[in-house]
Amino acid sequence: MRSLILLLSVLALGGCMKVSDLADGAAYQLRDAGVLDHGRTERMASRRLQADSFIYIAQGHFVPPGSAYPRPNVVAEEAFAGFVEYFPMVRRARAPTGLEEAMAQAQTAGAHYLLYSRFAAADDRIGTLDEWEDQQALDRLGTDRGVIQLMLIETNTRYLVDTARIRSRGGFMTFYDARPEDLLGPPLQDYARSLLGLSP
């Protein structure tokens, strides 16, 4: 009788949801609980772009306060990696640049939009034995956190199409030897999807 109830439960669940939906739901719950990496994007506008939009990606010179020192152009690099899957015409600046210089580069390249970013905050917590030996502070143990800010600007009119803030935090299953910049890829890819109107 017990195995029959179990079999009926599995069949009922299988009829309601696909296995991929169950896996996505479980991953979402694990991220929300802090077990896996988690990123949350706050957009100020809901405008969508066409898939053939030409986007130029650049990062500002701003270095986040604190002891974390991410690679100088890491946000632009991660944004490019996330956007290139959804927007075929994407280019990025080779190094951090000011907003006016980035706008000039985007216009010279013939881009429709400039995605200008900066790493606003980064908290690199203790995640390895070497880091523990260097710092030896219990309050520094834990998962990394980061905040990046994005501005999407139309190059012809200089109209601010969208602004977004992405807050990311590491998970307890993935915090070993991680850095705040390691958390940027998935939320930036989700942002690219949202610009096309696709659910993240």
Q: What is the N-to-C succession of helices and strands?
A: HHEEHEHEHEEH
> What is the rounded Rg?
20 Å
| Coarse morphology | globular
| Uncertain spans | 26-37
Could you tell me the number of beta strands? 6
**CATH domain class name of the largest domain:** Alpha Beta
Residue share in β-strands: 15-25%
Q: What's the CATH topology name of the largest domain?
A: Rossmann fold
Count of structural domains: 2
What's the average pLDDT?
78
How widely separated are the two ends? 42 Å
**Class from secondary-structure proportions:** alpha/beta
Main pleated-sheet profile? 6 strands, mixed
CATH superfamily of the largest domain, by name, is: ABC-type transport auxiliary lipoprotein component
CATH architecture of the largest domain: 3-Layer(aba) Sandwich
- Into which percent range does the helicity of residues fall? 25-40%
Oligomer: single chain
Strand order of the largest sheet: 1-6-5-4-2-3
Contiguous helical run count: 6
